[in-house]
Design a protein that fits this description.
14 helices; 74% helix; single chain; 301 residues
Length: 301
């Protein structure tokens, strides 16, 4: 079987996994802004549920010991990056709108492309560089609407989250053998003591605990599918597919939370989405991969 034939099913699996994660992640703003529990309380209960669900999954599949053995420093790095991203992600929704956070996250493909270029030699095409500049302008338009308002802090946290998630994608691209489920579980456990110190998880309304538990389970599924998909695709392509959550999240916020947005946010979001779509025209892969970066069979469909 040729290298291309071997790579094609692997890539298709990666696409499906990342798309599933994007659809699931699009519900995060609904869970976060749909409850009265504060950000640290959400991080605590969601993280506890996600860790328990993942541990149960690994134990049932008899993979826990194998994941521990395969963790390594790259798995630990992923756990730290995911924990930092979560710590920024949840309060971003509380301080800004679902649309703002989702649209800022749409710039992740270009952040991932830049990090992959600098760290593992995945050189972006000229088109991706131009699209990156356009997306950056779109982010500036969105953030400019928050100047002098409390939502500015939320937009800043959304940017931090975007960088952390892009970093996670690059790690999996550079080290495809890095385990997926255990780092996701550890990222939740890392945040539990911080949530207990800086927040008051026990103050969360009892009626909201089932919602937070479901949120944790949803997050666990989305994190694992994203990680498994990222190991099979170029970093920027993973982020581009993840951007499918961008149009879904504001729509869900409008339908369920009756959350509206401003013309400036819509303009900035349109610029970012156009950049994402334009960067993918005439060829799906957004990167030229240097031969020494990763095995050649993973560079193209």
């Amino acid at each position: 079987m040729s290298q291309i034939d071997t790579a094609a099913p692997d890539r298709r699996t990666g696409v499906v996994l990342v798309v599933v994660s994007a659809v699931v992640f699009s519900t995060a703003g609904i869970f976060t802004n749909g409850v009265d529990t504060d950000a640290w309380g959400i991080i605590f209960w969601r993280g506890l549920a996600a860790a328990a669900f993942t541990a149960g999954y690994l134990t049932t599949r008899r993979k826990l010991l194998a994941e521990v053995r395969a963790l390594g420093r790259h798995g630990l790095l992923v756990a730290v990056l995911m924990a930092a991203g979560t710590a920024a992600f949840i309060p971003a929704f509380k301080l800004s709108s679902v649309a703002n956070v989702a649209l800022i996250y749409a710039s992740a493909p270009f952040v991932a492309a830049g990090l992959a270029w600098a760290l593992i030699g995945e050189a972006p095409t000229r088109k991706v560089i131009v699209a990156s500049l356009a997306a950056f302008c779109g982010v500036l338009v969105i953030v400019s609407g928050s100047l002098g308002r409390p939502s500015l802090a939320g937009d800043g946290l959304a940017l931090v989250m975007t960088v952390m998630m892009a970093g996670t994608m690059v790690v999996y691209r550079a080290r495809p053998a890095t385990t997926a489920a255990l780092p996701a579980m550890l990222s939740s456990l890392i945040l539990l003591p911080f949530a207990a110190i800086f927040g008051d998880p026990l103050a969360a309304p009892v009626a909201e605990l089932p919602v937070l538990v479901i949120f944790g389970m949803v997050f666990a599924v989305a994190s694992v599918t994203l990680s498994e998909g990222a190991r099979r695709l170029p970093s920027a392509e993973t982020a581009l597919l993840s951007a499918l959550e961008v149009p879904l999240a504001p729509v869900l916020a409008w339908l369920i939370l009756a959350e509206t947005t401003t013309p400036r946010v819509l303009l900035g979001g349109a610029v970012i989405l156009f950049a994402v779509m334009w960067s993918q025209t005439r060829g799906l892969s957004p990167l030229r991969l240097r031969d020494r970066a990763v095995p050649a069979r993973r560079t193209k469909p």
